[in-house]
Automatic annotation (TrEMBL):
Protein name per its UniProtKB record: Uncharacterized protein
Amino acid sequence: MNLWIAQSKKCKTRVFLSGDLKTTSSFLFQIRRALPITLKHLTFKKLLNASVCLFEMVTKRSVLHSDPLYLRIEVCPYCNLRCPGCMLGGTREVSESNPGHRLEGAMKYILFEESLRDFVPSLFRVWLYDEGEPFLNGEIYDMIHFLSANNVGTCVSTNFSLKFSDETIEKIADCGLEHLIVALDGSTQESYSRYRRGGDFNLVISNIRRLQSLLSEKKSSPLKIEIQFLEFEYNKEERGAMRKLAKELGVWRLTIMEGCSCGADEESRPDLPEDERRDKRCYEIWLGATINSIGELGTCDYGEDFGIPNIGFAKDYKSEGLRNHPAIIQLRKSFGNNSVPLNDICKQCHWTIKKR
């Protein structure tokens, strides 16, 4: 079994692979995390687009001729748990950090397909999750199948603390999903539930075992399971137990990440000088984009949560020229031109800061 163990904070990552310690940026960590699964979706057209996209990012072009390499899609805007570090906190209440669109319910398949139409030819990978629990959307299996049929990689991050029928477990195995990240922040119910409030540790373990058993019978399934462990002061002594559990479950990978508030409170968000922030760069506004559950296209995952307005509807991406919407051009300019002030949200973004 190829078990990878990684320690990460959004800004800096240590990856442990066969005992070797390597340090890299969060961007490189995400590449390394996804690369083994993503490369099989490479085509000449995607390679050409990716080359142009990376060139435009490195040279800090503000007007782009490339399309996004990946998307993050909020297929479900609510959750069954109440994790304190999550923007939702397990509620569906409208607040400044919980946009009103989340009251509209889970994304419909028809809207999903309509929103993806212009993006599919360039995409390597789609993350089908944001703050909500994606498996609460019963149409997610059709969405994954659509992407798989169009040669796009898929990843779902889940708390997996749901009572799945045998039929649903089989859907997860058969729909074409390639990467499943299961949040498991403890080796016992007591430590696990301190963060995953409302979650059932034994149910998560049972679901993993059931899925692994089915995958062992279906040799052709592309699905790889990763356990993600958020490490806090109260559970950091459980690393050994988590390694043992991951091996026992036979998962593909164990990732250990430093737990944080995820920017849920103002004091936790750093406010760096503009020059230092520019030096940390930003890759999301060049390489990717986000789509929320009502089909709105956002500049980045962090932006919508903290107040950067969405730029239109994803279904109008080509017809309205949203890749080069004035708002996102301004954001790109701010990272490449000292005379253009950075957006206040960008100054505080966890994705572009590096750990000291």
